[in-house]
From TrEMBL, chains A, B, C, D:
Encoding gene (name): purU
Name this polypeptide is given: Formyltetrahydrofolate deformylase
Enzyme class (EC, first level): hydrolase
Organism: Algoriphagus alkaliphilus
Sequence similarity: Belongs to the PurU family.
Function: Catalyzes the hydrolysis of 10-formyltetrahydrofolate (formyl-FH4) to formate and tetrahydrofolate (FH4).
EC identifiers of the protein: 3.5.1.10
Domain of life: Bacteria
SUPFAM superfamilies: ACT-like, Formyltransferase
NCBIfam families, alphabetized: PRK06027.1 (NF004684), PurU (TIGR00655)
BP GO annotations: 'de novo' IMP biosynthetic process; one-carbon metabolic process
Signal peptide: none
Functional pathway: Purine metabolism; IMP biosynthesis via de novo pathway; formate from 10-formyl-5,6,7,8-tetrahydrofolate: step 1/1
């Protein structure tokens, strides 16, 4: 089914739901899902509406401008209009750890993810054969302290060439530059291997072990310039015990990481995520 | 804040959200929450809308009839209109096990439940002193095989006298009659001490022990004539291990029971529950 | 590190732990892990002990007979002695659904499973290319109502040829015969796509949808003659809501299935599972 | 059943389990539970053994010295010997928030906690009537910036008078002094209302709201001089969403707090907790 999805944010006022739903109805739209949220502290209104496009009497290309003219302007809305076709294009960045990548490839192969994966980019060549067995091109771009700029330029060229919409860092063990991030604002999803804000930084499982926590976790978030501080999309946890060694924490954690990352990808793909002031609103 | 809450169900058609939200807006209603659900298999539409009443230009008593005339009739809606005042009145039925009752009393005392508790009814006198310490009248009505009818008549009289809106069976170890249930359709909440539909009946922890399950649970549901088969409101689970004896299963389970029951009470109080064909839609 | 693992069950008596640990110490064994469980209702004692083999003064082949002579006989023990080398051999049976298989292959590739996978057997050819990309032989053995006996004979021949120790049914959509099971008692692990004993049978997600449960689950169990009734090794659950369609329940459930199955495989591989009277004792 | 429980820690060596279990057997002890843990990084061995005392041929008062002479000295053990009688005495400190206190009182009333509660101490008088309805003395000791020393002296005198073994801070909103803590080393259990080490300090739910986390938690830990940094006994979490306000986070969190604290109390009472280097080993 061809769907349109509208994500809205604006100062809260009376009549928004009424006007938006009347707009959709007036052009014969069949509303499939509607969610709204009012942040009373900030005085902000957020809304997501999805409707069937086939019977809709506005052409795909007209919708945004008509909506702006009839509704958006009146309420000073920021809005984004998405369609579930053509499928968005997702690049996956990976290093050597395969668990998140394989989880994504498996779901994609099973038809669970409504996305095209035009390429996988890695700073190691290890995972090339299996990625290619799944029918996906693999690009090996080594990264070190001296070539980081050129490596990112090469990555960006590939992303542009394949018209990539968003990027998933599937345990990609490199910090991406602020410059790189500016090309994909709120469109780079990272999986951090801890329950943020606990244990920021490079070795969270070691830190968790040292502190003796009874639960570990993982956090999927949009990448912003400040490391591990971007808007949180999803978090999951798992119970651990005193006898778990660091390698065991890593393994238990990896199961959490892959589930958390895949959920975040799903929310992003379904256009269920709004971001505001470094927080996310997830209409699941 | 004075609020009105509207719960709607009707055959699915275009324009319902639009018409309902326009209705609320046209009388100057500030929508606080709106949720909707379409059951595509049944072709049914469900909606919950909450709005501020203070600025609303219809009088409290006019709303239902106006809504029926302007909207309800057109879409063949079944709808219910609720207000968050005066507080609803909840009776609690209990036997000897105190964990669910104390959990409810504690929450009520802490101001977590927007409800009045005019009475607790029990077939045992044990818990009377503590219930009364919480300032709530306690009625001891013994029940046995020979006096069940008169006991229920006595209960019903008390419930009527105290104008009780709904009943919570907080591990009340008696089966209530079909006749009794008819006085409170979808207004009796029971906590069953298993993850239904596994382990219906009287001794679910024993059955769980026998089967060697690794997880046990509890189910809060509306009471219908068929035992343990009413619409499920909430379920929770807890992990158990081979070394847990039946008394330990009971204790672990009781923690699950009280949390599950309290969640169900909250949903019911917040008018977040719709029932249709023995299932619930919970707009949390 | 080379390890020996001893699994014991016998009638409960005083002195068992003392005698077993003294036996290990007397031959210079360094105990790594020891767990015990007494089932007071059955009057049974269960124990698992793991120790380093390198410094142990008994030869690998002598241990069982010495233990029987010095300890086992005295306490009427049933015991099994395992070593963590050579790696056990695990066959995976699969149909068309790939999620459990891919999860296993991914973990194996990442070195998480101390097991050899000499072959994957399927009644469909679909997954052959990817299995082979992971370097594992794939055998396509079609099964239908008329050839079931010969298909199982062919499977058994392959399992024998590859000296398979145990079998994982990774959503293998065929019922295996009692005759087949007798070749692998408590050595066939199945994943059932429900929280048993709720929803036995072929379409548990449909049944869960019909009943309107708020939590779904998966159960890994050893296969016995009675369908879906074997000893439960592990169970996991996930929360669902009224708006989840059956396909969504299936997807949410598949995530639970793969995690549950992989945990069960780990327990089995680590020799942490004892079975007694259709229940398991899991020393994790 | 009268039980003895032995908690041991010492440098790891061969033969400890063998010697300890032989000791117990030699005096006719029936071992009920035995758990051990080796911290390979620290080279430390930890053990817990529980046995029936009725048939034990050593007198209660002789056990410790005999064990020290026969076993402890040889392995340079630190050990503690506990009995499940007489019941330990637990003091509860509380301020105005009642949820943890009521949970403890409810469990105690239901016979779930093998402990005496000789007194509740509070810096507010609010909860006095209900505590007394449960039959427990309530002491109101106001605390402010100028009287902290004398208040603690008064508290200590009461604790001494009632021969209190350990203290539970059930959302007691005061920081206790280092001097006070020294009277009860690893015998003061606090519930912190966040998933430590995330959100230390006074307003964790506000901080969690600001950061936009998707999961909140609670941490029960022994109190040490460094605030919120003592050994973690138990942690639990709950899922939250973007629409949850801070008061809702508080309520959701309070459910987690009370469950977490009660679990920690249980572990402590069952003598299942060993502490080493600011971490706990929990033999549950």
């Amino acid at each position: 089914m061809n769907k349109a999805i509208l994500l809205i944010q604006c100062p809260d006022q009376k009549g928004i739901v009424s006007d938006v739903s009347r707009f959709l109805y007036s052009y014969n739209g069949n509303i499939l899902e509607v969610d709204q949220h009012v942040d009373e502290e900030m005085g902000m209104f957020f809304m997501r509406a999805a409707w069937e496009l086939d019977s809709f009497s506005l052409k795909k290309d007209e919708i945004a401008s008509r909506f702006e003219a009839e509704i958006g302007k009146k309420f000073q809305m920021e809005f984004k209009l998405h369609f579930n076709f053509p499928k968005p294009k997702m690049a996956v960045f990976v290093s050597k750890l395969s668990h998140c990548l394989f989880d994504i490839l498996g779901r994609h192969h099973a038809g669970q993810l409504e996305v095209d994966i035009p390429l996988v980019i890695s700073n190691h060549a290890d995972l090339k054969p299996i990625v290619e067995a799944f029918g996906i091109p693999f690009f090996y771009i080594p990264v070190n302290t001296s070539n980081k700029d050129t490596a990112e330029a090469e990555q960006l060229a590939l992303l542009k060439e394949h018209r990539v919409d968003f990027i998933v860092l599937a345990r990609y063990m490199q910090v991406v530059s602020a410059e790189f991030i500016r090309h994909f604002p709120n469109r780079i999803i990272n999986i951090h291997h801890s329950f943020l804000p606990a244990f920021v930084g490079a070795r969270p499982y070691h830190a968790a072990y040292e502190r003796g926590v009874k639960i570990i976790g993982a956090t999927a978030h949009y990448v912003t310039e400040e490391l591990d501080a971007g808007p949180i999309i999803e978090q999951e946890v798992a119970r651990v015990r005193h006898h778990n060694t660091i390698p065991e924490l890593v393994q238990i954690g990896q199961d959490v990481e892959k589930v958390t990352l895949s959920k975040a990808i799903k929310y992003h793909l379904d256009r269920k995520v709004l971001t505001f002031k470094n927080k996310t609103i997830i209409f699941y």
